[in-house]
Design brief:
Blueprint: E1 7-10, H1 12-20, H2 25-30, E2 33-36, H3 38-44, E3 52-54, H4 60-66, H5 72-81, E4 88-90, H6 94-102, E5 107-108, H7 110-119, H8 127-133, H9 142-151
Parallel strand pairs: 1-2, 1-4, 2-3, 4-5
């Protein structure tokens, strides 16, 4: 049973990175609702856990409009955020984040979710996860990771 009543909408990169870290279940432990779109589920290329709710975007014209600026998965996530109540929209791509923030949406990234997991006691330390992230193809600066670690008291 999830420990929070919060809802997230997540893009492919979050699923991919957490899968590589073998911590996908953190999403289920942190949030009562984990939503994504069929486009993102297809991009992920692995079966999603049963607790992930795959929801089609209703406003396809809005989604198409967003696709002029960002990739189809991110466009679908942002369009879904316009349709359902959520607490966090998880986007890791810098251009997609800027686009969503210009629309006034509340955005975080996978690193932010790991910080939440640490703050809620689900993981004891961030550094082991950050060390593993740097061994993947996930693009994040070492400077940013060190900044997050300092802020987290590590």
């Amino acid at each position: 049973m999830p420990g929070s009543s919060k809802v997230i909408i997540t893009d492919t990169s979050c699923f991919s990175l957490l899968r590589k870290l073998d911590t996908l279940e953190i999403l289920h432990k942190l949030f009562s609702g984990v939503f994504t779109t069929p486009e993102i589920a297809a991009e992920f290329k692995f079966p999603l856990p049963g607790w992930v709710q795959v929801q089609e975007v209703g406003n396809k014209s809005l989604q198409q409009e967003y696709m002029k600026f960002i990739d189809p998965g991110e466009a679908s996530a942002i369009a879904l955020a316009a349709e359902i109540p959520y607490d966090y929209l998880v986007l890791d791509d810098a251009d997609a984040r800027r686009f969503a923030e210009k629309l006034g949406l509340s955005v975080t990234g996978t690193i932010g979710l790991l910080v939440i997991a640490k703050n809620q006691g689900l993981i004891p330390l961030l550094r082991p996860y950050f060390d593993r992230i740097q061994q993947t193809n996930f693009h994040i600066s070492a400077t940013l990771l060190e900044h997050v670690l300092r802020n987290a008291g590590e």
